[in-house]
Write a structure and sequence with these properties.
Strand order of the largest sheet: 1-2
Shape: elongated
Number of helices: 1
Protein name: Potassium ion transporter
Helix content: 10-25%
Structural class: alpha+beta
Number of strands: 2
Organism: Streptomyces zinciresistens K42
Strand content: 5-15%
Length: 50
């Protein structure tokens, strides 16, 4: 599964696809102005209170 975007929705969708549905996910984000990037590998969805 490929998710494109660098906003909260894209990150949450990628995490949910990986954590809940056990999908392999590639998150495509635009280049950053920063030289050091924080990896997003292995992020998991937080447990909900519902």
């Amino acid at each position: 599964m490929v998710v494109c975007g660098d906003d909260g929705l894209a990150h949450r969708l990628a995490a949910e696809l990986r954590g809940v549905y056990r999908e392999q996910v590639t998150l495509v984000v635009p280049p950053s102005e920063r030289t050091v990037r924080t990896p997003v590998v292995g992020r998991a969805r937080a447990a909900s209170a519902a």
